[in-house]
Structures are given as structure tokens and as C-alpha cells.
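Changelog excerpt

This revision adds worked examples to the README so contributors can see how folded entries look when concatenated. The first example is reproduced verbatim below.
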Amino acid sequence: MLADGLMATGENIAACPEKNIEFFTPAGPENPAYRDDPTQPVAEDRIEDLPLRGKKPKKGEADTRTFDKSAFLYDSEADVYHCPMGKTLERRSERSKSERYLYRIAKSECTECPLRAKCFKNCRNQYGRRIENGKHERAKQAHATKMQTERSRKKYARRAAVTERPFALIKRGFGVREFLVRGLDKVRAEWTLLCIAHNLHRLLSLSRPQARASVP
């Protein structure tokens, strides 16, 4: 299944293997946090490419963004996180009702860290960096790791050719962003007309001389 990013919820990711569904979603930009040995720091020349949280500053403004959770790599076997410097965040507590877990790094590890300013908006923070995760974190991390592979990126790239172009034409070219009728039968009829219009548009495009010359 090739789905958009909104479908990449923990529940969906965890449920797909149970139904023998191979699930693919957008991989996003290459994340240098995914490295062979997470106990070692991210390469110095890739630090600036790590994902950040917060709004990108306007020209002339200071960049106060901090490392996003995805800059920390989760080790499902050891049940720990590794920060961009390779340090370990261990599980400290559990919120049973929300099924969320808190991971924190030792204060001493953060005090002299050269990347401290990218972990805390307030550099006077007296605690180590912390991360929260939910019950589907292992599945989400495994999925994110899979989507960073070349195979998965190529697989997902097929979605653009299969679905994006027709929907883009219908929404932008035809200006149709919602159905004008109500009821399943009426909506199905309207959708059929839109598909016919799309196919005629495509046929007309292919019938032009320059289009015919480019078709193998």
C-alpha cells in the first residue's frame, strides 16, 4: 500500500503487518540520524541536516529551533534512544493511562555538550534532554528506518506516477475540490464523469504531434 503521510499513524503502521500489508509512506528528506552505529556521533558535516522542530526563522532572525524527536534514534532491543552525539537516553517513567514513556539523558552528559543549544531553547535548563514515545514507537521506528532505504524510496516513487497526476488535474485543472451532490450513487456518477473528462484530456494530449513523437 502506497499512502500519504497522514496515514502514517502508529495504529496503521502496527496493524498492516498483521493483515499482510506492506505499507509505504513518504520518507521525507534523508535523515543523517540513521547511521550504522548510533552510539557514535552524527558526522560533523551532517549535523546541520538533522531535523529540527519549530518554525524556520525569517531573514535576520536568530535560529532558535531545536532538534526534533526524529533526530534521536530509538533502539527497540535495548529500549533506549541515542542522541546526535551518540549518548543514551534511558526510560525513566511510564504514564500508564496514556501508554506513553519518558526517556531522559543524564544531566552530566548534556552540561558540556557542543550541541546543547540545539537541544534546549533555554540553555540554563538544569536537566538532561528528554523524549516521550507511545506504545507503537517500535513499529514507527522500524517503519521510518525502512522508508530510508533505496528500495522503499523507489517503491513509493511509483505513487506519483499512478495517482498524483490525475488528482492534480481534477483538483487544479478542473477546479473540482469537492463533490457537488450527495448520496453514494450520485457521487459515484459525478466521479465517473470526472474520470471520463480526465481520460479525454489525456487522450487529447497524446493525440498532439509532439506527444506522439515522445511515445515509444
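The second example, added in the same revision:
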Amino acid sequence: MRDPYSLEAEHAVLGAMLIKPELIDILSADLKTSDFFFADNRAVFDAIQALKAAGTPVDFLTVAEKIGTLGEDSSALAYCADLHRNTPSAANARAYANTVLERSTVRALMTAAQAIHEIAQGDSGTEDKITQAQAEINAIGSSSAGSETITAGEAVRKHIEELERREALGGAMDGLATGIPSLDAKIMGLKGGQLIIVAGRPKMGKTTLAMNIVDNVAVHSGKRVLVFSQEMSHGELMDKSLASLGNIPLRALKDGSALSTHPTQMLEASNLIHGAAIELYDRSGVTVSRIRAVSRRQKMNFGLDLIVVDHIGLVDVDDARANSVQRISEITRQLKLLAKELDVPVIALSQLNRQLEQRPNKRPVPSDLRDSGSIEQDADMIIFVYRDEVYEPNTKDRGVAEIIIGAARGIQPCTVRVAYQGGYSRFIDLQAIAGSPPPDLFDDSADYAPKPESPVAKVTSMAERYNKSYGGHRS
């Protein structure tokens, strides 16, 4: 097993600083005193930093004088002279600094492992233990992530590379597609690091829109999605996906008749879902720290491309004393940090204040968000779902939904009009149904599917057919 330290690398870094003082700032940007394992080397590093800060010339004589004596009264002058003499070149100083940092990280991992062992034996709950253990590991990541800043020159170089990548796309969408072309044309896809809020009053179709996006990203684009559902069970979510993907009336799924009336469509849709990388978490009482822990584990073990949280009003925080404003603020802040950390888009559903229903124009605006201050601050995009028929059943816009981009970084507020097919739990482009009369889109029990398949003499149990194909195992 390799030692969790390297005396040679520590000497090489310090020696490089002594023979070429202009490297001190560069090498020190990623190193701190505790990264040096040997006490004498820590003393030399501290002395170099102190002299540099004071504007005093740095060489082996001034450093030795600053230190005075080393451990066991050994001569600081002799020690520094050896460092200077035994480092013939500073050419590989950065590589040696990386070695020092790497070995320091290994030692930190060993310390964290001991701390996690003690946490595991403690009396706190399992979720608290997981959160504490994750914090131990995260502390290592944040302290060993390298330089915390980037030069403007490096920033512009990276940005030019990004611009070249965008140009190569030729105007194509740069992000995950929602599956609604007219919406994708406006937002150019869902991008890593974004927190997207999808909000609306009850019955508007927030969860339907979210699951349509999930199905498109996972089923049609082959990406991995993690869904935290606090409002609906996984069975209810599957009803929505089966209806949308299989063109099966939602009413037939709710009463179970779809198994006999649409067996082929059921099997085809279930096959699509089985082949998709969708993970569902529907345990009640989920905390935002739990969401972060599960998401990190999913990203590390399997990869992750999209996170959906339905909805933030039902997510808990660790501080039981927090009021509603503080709770929402903590949740949105943590979700935004999670999006940046994992470099994935996070879609979070949110309710709206009921006061908006008291005004003539009930189309929502950002200030209608419950406890909206932190949401507006943390969100990269706020999307509202509005259907006039919820309030006016006889409206001329029956069957039409408005997806309102109320606020977004780099995007002008706008409205995308789409068709809402509640009977199939889906939103689609209006152009997709051009020329055909809109169905009773508000009624989720409506039946607009093709004529049911003719009943067969004996319908094999769908569960039996599914288990025979997949053995009940996860992909």
C-alpha cells in the first residue's frame, strides 16, 4: 500500500519556492499548511508564506532566520540549505505540488472514514447518519478541489471553446428536449446547473407536464432521470406515463379496463418504460438533504441527467423550527446548489397563491409564487402552466394550455400555446392536432383513443406477461 505522504514531493515543492520565489504564489494557490505531512516542512511553508506576505525576499537564509529552530532543535539553516541544494530545477514543481495535494486528500479520506465509522455507531437516525457521512466526504471535495479562482484569460479561452461548440450545433438545441418542439424552440433545452420552477394552480397540469418531460428525456432521448414525488404514488405516475406513451385513455387505466381493451398498447408502453432509466422516489416526508444524498449516489453509481421534485411545498428541511418562508428558501437554495454540483437540470414543481384567482386575469406572474422571494432569486427559469378552461369551462380556448415563461436568465418572457389532452395525460404542440377537433381536454376521464382492440378469448395477465419478459428485475 502506498504511503499517504511523500517526503520527496514536499521537499521538491519547498525547494522550488526557495530557488524560484516567483513560483510561491502559483504553488501556494492550491496548497495549505496542513497538506504537508512532516512538521518541519509545515514550518518551512509557513515561514515562506509569512515572508512573502510581508514583502521580504525569500531565500534559504531568510526562511531559516524566520523559523529559528525546527523539531528536536535541528538547524533550520542546514535544513533549508539542503532543500535549496537538493532541488536542481523547479521545472516539475507543479507536478510535485499535485502529489502533495493528492497525498493530503488520501489522509483526509482516512480521517473521514474513521469519522464515518463513529457516525455509523451513533444514536442518530439513519438519514441523519447518511447526511453527516456525506458532509464528511463533501468537506474533502471542497478543500481539495484545486484553485478556487480562474484567471480571466483561462475563462475567455474556455468560453471561446464553448462558443465554438455552440456554433457547431448550427442553431440546434443545446440541452435536454422537453418533447414539446414549440417550447424547446424558446428555451433551447434544459441545461445542466439550471433550477427550473414549474408552477401553477391545482388542476392546471404541472405533474403532467413534468412527467411528459421525464418520458421524453428518458424514453426518447435515452437519458437517466430521478423523480422525487411527494404528491403522487409511483402507481399514479405510471398511469400518466402509460397513458401518454401508449395512447391509452387515462380513465381505462384508472379503472383497470386497459388490460383487456388495450393489451397491445399496454405491453408496448410498458416495454418502453421498462427500457427507460427512470428512478422514482415516492416515500413521504423526504427532506432536501435526503434529495441531495440520493441524487449524489445516483450520479456517482449510475450517472444522472435530470432531477424532478414534485413538489417543493411537500419537501421538509432539517430545521423543524423553520417557518414557511425559511423552509422554501432553504429548499430552493439547496436544489440550485445540487443542480450546479451535479451539472444537471433540476425541475421543481411549486404551488401558487390562491389570491390570484380573485383578479380578472388569472394568468400567473412570478409574484404569485408562494414565498416567492427565494424562488425568484434561485431559479434560472420560472414556467407557469395555465389553462383558461379551469376557470371558464366554455372558453373558446378549451383544450388549449399556455406555458408561460415568466422569468428566465437570457430569455425574454413569452407564452407558448399548446394542446392539453387530459384524457391521455399529455401536452403536445397545437400543430400536431391541426385539422382535427380538440377532444374534451379538461376531463381526465375522456376517451379519445382509437377503437379498443377486439377482446380475445382469453387475456393473459399483463403482470404475468411482463414478469415473463423481465423477471421482475430492474434494468
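Reviewer comment on example two: The chain is about 45% helix and 10% strand. The CA atoms of residues 17 and 24 lie 5 Å apart.
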